[in-house]
Amino acid sequence: MPSKSLKIADGPVLIAGPTASGKSALALHIAQEFGGQIINADALQVYGCWQVLTARPDDEEMSKVPHRLYGHVPCHFDYSVGHWLREIQPILGEAMRPIIVGGTGLYFSALTEGLAEIPPIPPDIREEAEEIKKTNGFNVFLTDLNEKTIGRIDTLNPMRVQRAWEVWRSTGRQISDWQDETPPPLLSLGQTNRFVLDSPKEWLNERIARRFDSMLSQGAIEEARANLTNWDPSRLSSKAIGAPELISYLSGDLTLDEAREKATITTRQYAKRQRTWFRARMKAWEIIDATQL
Which pTM value belongs to this model? Predict the structure, then answer.
């Protein structure tokens, strides 16, 4: 770890980066070297039913320094960035330095830019969206979104596109209109130590492949089996990369090799979207070469 070259001033630490880039290890190093508590900013590591597949810190890591907002949400719950902001707000007021780490860019932007107070999506609208996506694919949602909304969302991310459509369908207003009424953020970006990890694509892809193999050896199949009975692909928790593939393996629809290959490809695609998002939205952040950690 770059203990000598890494400069940490007073105030919160934000660590973003694509999956498998070494964020959790860097956060642990900073907490031990400079003091602080680690706070999760990953939308899937909040769920209690997935530890191995979401690369959530294990018991040994969590025993070394305080960890918050990890694995505390039931799998059936539709946890949102709004829930996360409400949970992190009192933690930010505590004396111990917050070290906020994760790969969900929307969490960081909501934290430092504010979040529009959009009404909850009614279940019937969510069901309608799921049916449309199943029949026509998620790109069909774009036809109902205006240029301003399309310019603000990741149009390659099915969850973000569907979310924007659901907001329009349920409120009659584009998500960009709601965003224009955003309240002040909880943290000012200028008051933080902010780092985003980056690396060559080939280096990261190799780590992704090795990590999934490691997940298999650490019990990922058993973890998926424990979730098989109550599996519901429409749940947000079911978006954990590797979960649909291992469920398909356990259901007899894929071989283990096919599930492994499909999960690895999906992870690489996700990492690519993350890197694109971070580079576009985090230009004011300090870039750290992940290969040097």
Answer: 0.84
